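Fill in residues.
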């Protein structure tokens, strides 16, 4: 099934708002149905987007994105307990961009390979006011 993706807008054109950026990422995980989260959900973004998020801290002061995992951990990068894959075919943060995807690994790979996919298994973060 190909269909429209559900997305969350950051509220700021081309960036994150100064407050609540971390909450938007949590919201992405909440919107994805548990059945899809349990099937290997991950975040996908460009390396530049990952570096922007790496500067963010949660309400407890901990990094939102862990780029420096312990040796032997897979995947090496995690965010909010889910794997993170950098893919430079994803757009960098810019006005109106869909720069972060969160969803079932298999469905994200289907999109990358131009195969049929389930749009319900993927959520996007749009860098815009609406």
């Amino acid at each position: 099934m190909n269909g429209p993706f559900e997305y969350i807008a950051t509220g700021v054109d081309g960036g994150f708002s100064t407050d609540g950026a971390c909450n938007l990422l949590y919201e992405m995980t909440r919107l994805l149905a548990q059945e899809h989260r349990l099937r290997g959900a991950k975040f996908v973004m460009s390396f530049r987007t990952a570096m922007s998020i790496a500067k963010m801290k949660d309400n407890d002061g901990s990094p939102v994105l862990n780029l420096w995992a312990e040796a032997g951990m897979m995947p090496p990068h995690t965010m909010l307990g889910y794997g993170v894959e950098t893919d430079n075919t994803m757009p960098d943060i810019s006005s109106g961009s869909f720069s972060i995807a969160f969803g079932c690994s298999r469905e994200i790979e289907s999109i990358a390979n131009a195969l049929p996919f389930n749009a319900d298994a993927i959520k996007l973060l749009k860098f815009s006011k609406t």
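The chain has one domain: 6-126.
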